[in-house]
Each structure stands twice: as C-alpha cells, then as structure tokens.
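Q: Sequence in, structure out?
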Amino acid sequence: MEKLIDSHRLYYKGEEDPAVNSCRVRLARNLSEHFFVSRMGIDQRRDLLKSVSETILAKLGGDFRLLTRDNTKVEERRLLEELNLIPEKFFDPDGYRGIIIGGGAVSILINEEDHIRIQAFCSGKALSELYRMALKVDELMEGVLGKVAFSKRWGYLTACLTNVGTGLRASVMVHLPALSLTKQIPKLTNACRALGYTIRGPHGEGSDLAGNLYQLSNQRTLGLSEEEIISGVIHMADRMGGFEGDCRRQLLGAMREVMEDKVFRALGVVNSARMISSGEAAGLLSAIRLGLEWKFFDGAPKVPINELLDNIKPTHLSRLYGEKIGGRDAAQRRDVLRARYLRESLKDIKTALSN
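A: Exactly. Output:
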C-alpha cells in the first residue's frame, strides 16, 4: 500500500519554473439522485462509496485502488495528508470516504464535500496538461455513474456555492521570497482578488504560510468556461512570476551582500544545527533555493527542493529513518531527525563550496 502512495510523491514532472512549485486541478461532481454529502446519513454514504468506487474502478482498471479507513494504516493516512492528497480528518470513523489512486498524477475523492472530486496534482508548471488528465477521467465516468447534478442555467451543482458552474478549481503553488521580503504580498493579494483570484497559504484557506509558498487559485467557477479558467490562472501565475523575477533582480542589484548573507546564513544553520522545526526548515529551504537559482553555490549539483519539502514532514521523516515517533518527546525527536536529514541532503553544496 505504501508503495502505491509513494508513487504520488513526486507526481508528474511538469515544466520547471523559478516561481512555480507545483499545480493542481480539481473537478467537483455530484449525482442528482442523492442528497449532498452533508445531508446524507451513514448508511447512504456507505452505499454511495461502495457503488461509486466499484463503478469507477471497473472503468479505470489498471493499478487504481480504493483507499479507505478500513484498508489503510494510520501512517499511510498521514502520508496522504502530508502529500495534500486528502484533507485533514478525511478518514473520520463515520465518514465513509475514500480516495482512488493509481500511481499517477490523478486521484479521485469520494464523499468529501461533494460526491466525487477528481484531482490532478504535479510538481512544476503543467496546469493545462493536468486539466486534460482530469477531464479525461471525467469523460470516462460520464454516463456510467448515473445522472450528474447539472443545471442548464447554473452548470454543475456543488455542495459549496463558490464551486457552482464548472466545478473547476485550478491552483498554482508559487514561491515568492522576494515579494515576501519586500512586503508586497498584501498589495498582490488585493490586486488578485479584484481580478477574481485568491492567494492563500500552501494548504488552502486558513493554512499558515511556510517557506514563502502561496497558493494562487480562481475564485470564479460560474460564467467562465473551463478553458478560460485554466488560461486565466496560468496568466496570473506568469504575471506573479514576472513580478517576483523583477523583484529578485532589484534585490540582487541593490542588496547583493544582504541577500548573500541571508542565503549563506541559511546554509550555515543547516550545516550546524542539531534541531530544526518544520517551519524553520521551510524558510531555510526557501533561502537555499534562491541561492541555487542565483548560482551562489559554484559547482553545487541541483537539489530537489520539492522532494525535501515533502520529506521534512513528520510521517515522511519517521519512514525515512525507520522510527515510530511518539510520546512526550516526539516533536523534539522529529526536530533532531529533520536537522539530520537536511544536513545529509545538502552536504553536496557544502562540499562544492569547500573545493
């Protein structure tokens, strides 16, 4: 089971971009003959999970499997959360929810907020391709699951009014350290909101910021076509990347020594610290990523920052070092392992600088 989950760790490799970390597409669908999930009883949710999952698996075939609370371990469920494939508390005892995954970029949630949520998630910049992947799955399911809740006037009907219309949410995770440092994020957030887009923390609404990562997504799902939504988010991500690039060049030109100090201090902490929290680790990796992009580390090999950001999470660390971490000192032990992992992962940069 964990090997199947592992196959989603790096996802589909999209086009690399200095400002884009990853992207996601999500399609929300509901079946007209059933209440929305929030109005369904336990028996109804259980029956819907069974019927929908069996139908989808028969249609998709291949290596796709249904993961539920009953056939996964606690550690596996935490891995799915850390990979952002499921939200927190998705596997509540009475929820009768499941996720269908098959080792690629696409996965399908059943009985979350909507009956079905098709999601495609990848590292890099490949939003259009992700949309085509999700749409292909949507078309495969069309006509085999029953009548989809759809209105000629309003489009796809969803549990949350903000998703009515296309049912499409497209998002891009952007790395904006220069704009963060120059305190331009609030102005950028207001400008995006005025244009129909939103900027949140890396894990969606209400989540804390970590490593100067921000999630850009569409606010409107009604009155626009799917193609217009995708192209709009791509355009906004490109504009934000342009602003970030301009800001980085300005910082490098006017404050090079300050930026070098910030980057090399981050590397120094990684090389010497024996305990590092997850929030601090994300900030250090953000600075080191800048140093790599600015070529401050002559001769250093490319570092998979996205992979490191996954591996510094609690359950990933436990698996990497074969430890079951629990009890009163669990947080401290994770901080120790996280520091060790970063030292080991970034040692080639230190070696390159010493040569």
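The chain has two domains: 2-174, 256-354.
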